C-alpha cells in the first residue's frame, strides 16, 4: 500500500506501537514535518506528500481493535479539547466526528495537511501526526456511536419565497398587497431586481437613504430576511401602479432620451443595480427626481441628471414611465428544501446517511457547522469542485434550512466490511 514515504514517517510506522506509545509515533511524525519545512525533502528524494490514491484513503477501514485503541489514545490527547470526549463537540464551529465515515475523516486530515483544505486550527492540530496515527484516530472516531439528532426545526420547512411573503406582510398596507402600489407617493416594489431592493433596504437601515418611515420598517430586517422579501416581490406578476399621472407623457418620452442608456428604452433596466421605472407610481418618480436635485437623496449620477430638469419636465417624465408596462425580472424560482435534499441525498445518502466511506454523513451533524461549511463552499473558501457546483442558486435561506434539516436527521453508524482484493 502506498503511503507517505518520508523515512521519518516510516520510522513512525505502527509496527509494535501499542496504546500508550502514541507519543513516540507523534515524535517521529514531528521529524517528518520538520524535515519538510526545512527543505530537506529534496535530500529525502521527495518534494511533497504524494497524492493519495483511493485505496490509500480506505486505510482506516482495515483498522483492527488495537489500531482503534491507539486512535482513542491520540484522540484523548490531541483532539478531545475541541471535538469532545466522545467525538461529540460542544463548540459551534467544530464538527462532531463520532460515527462519521472513517475514510472521509482520514482523507480530510490529509487535505488539511496538504493545505488543500485551509484551516489554521486543524492544520496546527494534526501537523505532527504520522499517517498511521491519522488512520487510527479516523478509525476510532468512525467506530463511535453517532450523536443524537437535533430537534426538528420548529417552523417546519420555510422556503425563501414563503419566508419573504410572510416577512412582507407588514409592507402591503403601503406598497400594495402584491407590491403594486395604490397610494400616490409610495413606490411599487414589483418589477425590480432583488439586488436593487436589497440595496435600498440596506441604505434605509443604515440611514444613507433618508426616510423616517422606511428606516423604521427596515431596521429589524437582517440580510437573509431582506433578500427573502426582495425575492418575493421579484416573483410577483407586475402591473402598472393604479395611481394618477398628471404629466404629459408624449413630452416625457422626448425628455427621456438621456435616461434610456441606464433605465432601458422601455423603462426596464438591464442592470440589477439600476431600478426599472416602467409602471412606477408617477408621484414617487417626481418626488425621487426632486430629491436627487435638492440633494436629500444622495446619488452623484442622478443628481447631475436631475439638476437640469424643471418641475414640469419631471412630471412629464414621470407620466411617460408610469405608462410603460413593467416586467418581471429574470429570477429563477428557488428550489424548496425538499427539492434540495433530494439532490443532496443522491451523494450523501438517505437523510444524509452516506454509505460511501469517502462521502461525509450529514445526519445529526451540528447545524452551526453545516451552515459554516455550506457558506464556505458558496464563497469558494472551502475547495471542492463537486460541492461548489451544487451551490449554484442556493440562497442563505436554503443554507439555514438545509443545515437544520440534516442536523435533525437520525444518524446511523455504518460498518464497512473490507473485502480482500482479488488476486
Ligand atoms: C483547537 C481545536 C481543534 C483541535 C485540537 C482539533 N480539531 Fe479537528 N477541527 C476543528 C475545527 C474548528 C474544524 C472545522 C474546520 C473547518 O471548517 O475546516 C475541525 C475539523 C476536523 C475534521 C473535518 C471533519 C469534517 O466533517 O469535515 C477532522 C477530520 C478533524 N477535525 C479531525 C481532528 C483530529 C483527528 C484531531 C486530533 C488529532 C483534531 N481534529 C483536533 C478544531 C480542532
Ligand atoms: C407606512 C408606509 C410604508 C410601509 C409600511 C413600508 N413602506 Fe417602503 N416605502 C414607503 C415610502 C413612502 C417609500 C418612498 C421613500 C423614499 O422616498 O425614499 C418607500 C420606499 C421603499 C423602497 C424603495 C423602493 C425604490 O424604488 O427605491 C423599498 C425597497 C421599500 N420601501 C420596501 C419596503 C418593505 C420591504 C416594507 C415592509 C418591510 C416597507 N417598504 C414598508 C412607505 C412604506
Ligand atoms: C448613468 C446611468 C443613469 C442615467 C443616464 C439615468 N439614471 Fe436614473 N438612476 C440610475 C441609478 C444607478 C439609480 C439608483 C440610484 C440610487 O440608488 O439612488 C437611478 C435612480 C433613478 C430614479 C429612482 C427610482 C427609484 O425606484 O427609486 C429615478 C426616478 C430615475 N433614476 C430617473 C431617471 C431619469 C428620468 C433619467 C433621465 C433624465 C435618468 N434616471 C438617467 C442611473 C441612471
Ligand atoms: C455529486 C455528489 C454530491 C452532491 C450531489 C452533494 N454533495 Fe456534499 N459533498 C460531496 C463531497 C465529495 C464532499 C466532500 C468534499 C471535500 O472533500 O471537502 C461533500 C461535502 C459536503 C459537506 C461537508 C461535510 C463535512 O463534514 O465537512 C456538506 C455539509 C455537504 N457536502 C452538504 C451537501 C448538501 C447540503 C448538498 C445538497 C445541496 C450536497 N452536499 C450535495 C458530494 C456531494
Description:
By secondary structure, the protein is mostly helical. The chain has 2 domains: 1-145, Orthogonal Bundle (Cytochrome Bc1 Complex, Chain D, domain 2), CATH 1.10.760.10; 160-322, Cytochrome Bc1 Complex, Chain D, domain 2. 48% of the residues lie in helices and 0% in strands. It is built from 22 helices and no strands. Helix 20 runs antiparallel to helix 22. The radius of gyration is 30 Å and the shape is elongated. The two termini are 15 Å apart. Residues 1-49 have low confidence and may be disordered. Bound molecules: heme C (HEC) (4 copies). One heme C binds next to helix 4, helix 5, helix 6 and helix 7.
Shape: elongated
In percent, how helical is the residue content?
Answer: 40-55%
CATH architecture of the largest domain: Orthogonal Bundle
**Average pLDDT value?**
86
Number of structural units classed as domains: 2
Total beta-strand segments:
0
Radius of gyration over alpha carbons?
30 Å
The level-1 CATH class of the largest domain? Mainly Alpha
Annotation field: number of helices: 22
The H-and-E topology, N to C, reads as HHHHHHHHHHHHHHHHHHHHHH
Gap between N and C termini: 15 Å
- What would the CATH topology of the largest domain be? Cytochrome Bc1 Complex, Chain D, domain 2
The ligands bound in this entry are: heme C
Strand content: under 5%
How is the main sheet built?
Answer: none
Structural class assignment: mainly alpha
Low-confidence stretches: 1-49
Amino acid at each position: 500500500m502506498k503511503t507517505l514515504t518520508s523515512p521519518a514517517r516510516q520510522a513512525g510506522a505502527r509496527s509494535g506501537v501499542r496504546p500508550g506509545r502514541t507519543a513516540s509515533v507523534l515524535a517521529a511524525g514531528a521529524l517528518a514535518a520538520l524535515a519538510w519545512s526545512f527543505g530537506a525533502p529534496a535530500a529525502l528524494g521527495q518534494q511533497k506528500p504524494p497524492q493519495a490514491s483511493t485505496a490509500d484513503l480506505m486505510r482506516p477501514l482495515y483498522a483492527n481493535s488495537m489500531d482503534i485503541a491507539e486512535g482513542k489514545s491520540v484522540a484523548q490527547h490531541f483532539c478531545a479539547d475541541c471535538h469532545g470526549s466522545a467525538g461529540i463537540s460542544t463548540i459551534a464551529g467544530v464538527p462532531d466526528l463520532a460515527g462519521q465515515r472513517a475514510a472521509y475523516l482520514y482523507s480530510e486530515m490529509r487535505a488539511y495537511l496538504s493545505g488543500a483544505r485551509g484551516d489554521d486550527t486543524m492544520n496546527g492540530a494534526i501537523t505532527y501526526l504520522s499517517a498511521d496515527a491519522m488512520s487510527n484516530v479516523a478509525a476510532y472516531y468512525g467506530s463511535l456511536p453517532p450523536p443524537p439528532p437535533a430537534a426538528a426545526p420548529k417552523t417546519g420547512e420555510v422556503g425563501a419565497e414563503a419566508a419573504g411573503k410572510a416577512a412582507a406582510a407588514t409592507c402591503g398596507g403601503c406598497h400594495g398587497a402584491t407590491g403594486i402600489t395604490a397610494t400616490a407617493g409610495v413606490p411599487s416594489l414589483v418589477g425590480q431586481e432583488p439586488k436593487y431592493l436589497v440595496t435600498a433596504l440596506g441604505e434605509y437601515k443604515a440611514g444613507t437613504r433618508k426616510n423616517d418611515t422606511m428606516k423604521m420598517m427596515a431596521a429589524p430586517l437582517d440580510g437573509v430576511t431582506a433578500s427573502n422579501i426582495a425575492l418575493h416581490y421579484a416573483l410577483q406578476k407586475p402591473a402598472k401602479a393604479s395611481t394618477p399621472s398628471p404629466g404629459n407623457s408624449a413630452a416625457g418620452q422626448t425628455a427621456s432620451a438621456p435616461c434610456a442608456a441606464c433605465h432601458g428604452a422601455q423603462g426596464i433596466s438591464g442592470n440589477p443595480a439600476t431600478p426599472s421605472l416602467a409602471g412606477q407610481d408617477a408621484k414617487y418618480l417626481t418626488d425621487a427626481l426632486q430629491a436627487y436635485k435638492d440633494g436629500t437623496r444622495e446619488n452623484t449620477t442622478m443628481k447631475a441628471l436631475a439638476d437640469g430638469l424643471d418641475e414640469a419636465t419631471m412630471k412629464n417624465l414621470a407620466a411617460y414611465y408610469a405608462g410603460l408596462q413593467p416586467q418581471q425580472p429574470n429570477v429563477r424560482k428557488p428550489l424548496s428544501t425538499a427539492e434540495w435534499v433530494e439532490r443532496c441525498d443522491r451523494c450523501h445518502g438517505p437523510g444524509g446517511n452516506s454509505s460511501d466511506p469517502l462521502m461525509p454523513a450529514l445526519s445529526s451533524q451540528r447545524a452551526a457547522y453545516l451552515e459554516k461549511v455550506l457558506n464556505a463552499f458558496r464563497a469558494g473558501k472551502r475547495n471542492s469542485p463537486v460541492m461548489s457546483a451544487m451551490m449554484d442558486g442556493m440562497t442563505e435561506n436554503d443554507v439555514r434550512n438545509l443545515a437544520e434539516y440534516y442536523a435533525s436527521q437520525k444518524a446511523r453508524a455504518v460498518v464497512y466490511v473490507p473485502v480482500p482484493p482479488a488476486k
